Amino acid sequence: MREIKILICGLFVCIFSITPLSTQDVDLDEICQGMPNGTYVPDPLACESFYLCLTDEPPRWAECPNDYWFNPDTAVCDLQENVDCVHVTTEPPTTTTTTTTTTTVATTTWDPDIEPGIYCPSQDNPFTILFLQSFVDCGTYYICYHGRPHRFQCVSGMYWNPFWNQCDYPQNTHCQINPNPFPVCPRNGLSIFPHPDECDSYIYCLNGEPSIQKCPFYHHWDIGSQSCMLRDRARCVSD
Questions:
Q1: How is domain 113-181 classified at the CATH fold level?
Q2: 3-class secondary-structure state, position 149
Q3: Is the pTM of this model over 0.85?
Q4: Spatial separation of the C-alpha atoms in residues 42 and 71, rounded to whole Å
Q5: Is CB count within 10 Å lower at the N or C end of the chain?
Q6: SMART domains in the record, alphabetically (predicted)?
Q7: Radius of gyration over alpha carbons of the chain, in Å?
């Protein structure tokens, strides 16, 4: 029988919950030092858990499903018998310094470099990961966390495949770039999106039904404030 491994953001996606981590016994300043954005590193205190390294943000703690351990050699949640969990320490490391510092895990903040049209739901589903495809770069994708999108990049020469939620060969993805996509209204609740082509308009979504609204005369929809502003001050989605 062929063995199928559960990959993390690889060929198959492992369902896990990314949560703010506890700082107890873990040096947050060192755990992801020098690691590229989106790297997974093993938890030094537990075989079944690991950290997601994010640029300019504290690392996020995550855990493999029951009966699986994190494999640091392949960055997968793997069967325990396939993992040599030698990195876990039985005791917290000692320190020779006389002063201590406390690192606070910050809440995720909005990244101004996130492309227009990328939106995450305000509430996370702890049992699944929400991936979003970039509209302007075939090799870019996003992971939603606490209502905010985090940008990740496939390795050179690979494209994001939204069907499998993985980086794939370009010929398997059928990627088509549309820098100004028309947003899909969420099924529930009220949402407002910028119009992809008209700066003086916006899209009002209510329970999955969209309607195009216009700003007052000489006003444009500002994607920063999410409101109509004087057009010489507003930042249009197409800017």
A1: Antimicrobial Protein, Tachycitin; Chain A (2.170.140)
A2: strand
A3: no
A4: 8
A5: N
A6: ChtBD2
A7: 21
Per-residue model confidence (pLDDT) at position 77: 73
What does the block give as tokens for 177? 């770039």
Compute the distance between CA of residue 160 and CA of residue 142 in angstroms, rounded to an integer.
10
Q: Across residues 28-43, what is the average pLDDT?
A: 82
Q: Which two tokens stand for residue 54?
A: 């994010």
- Nearest alpha-carbon partner for 147 in 123, 180, 111: 123
Distance from C-alpha of 32 to C-alpha of 117, rounded to nearest angstrom = 30
User: H helices within 99-145, ranges in order?
Assistant: none
> Which residues contact residue 29 at a Cβ distance below 8 angstroms, ignoring those fewer than 6 apart?
103
Residue 88 has pLDDT above 50, yes or no: yes
If you write DSSP's letter for every residue of 172-228 in order, what string do you get? GT-----SSPPPPPPSSSEEEEE-SS-TTEEEEEETTEEEEEEPPTTEEEETTTTEE
Integer angstrom CA distances of residue 90 from 44, 87, 93, 144: 9, 10, 9, 34
| pLDDT band per the 50, 70, 90 thresholds, residue 220 | very high
For the stretch 116-166, pLDDT in tens is 667 776 666 666 677 888 878 899 988 887 778 888 889 888 998 887 888
For residue 84, how far is the Cα from the chain centroid?
A: 29
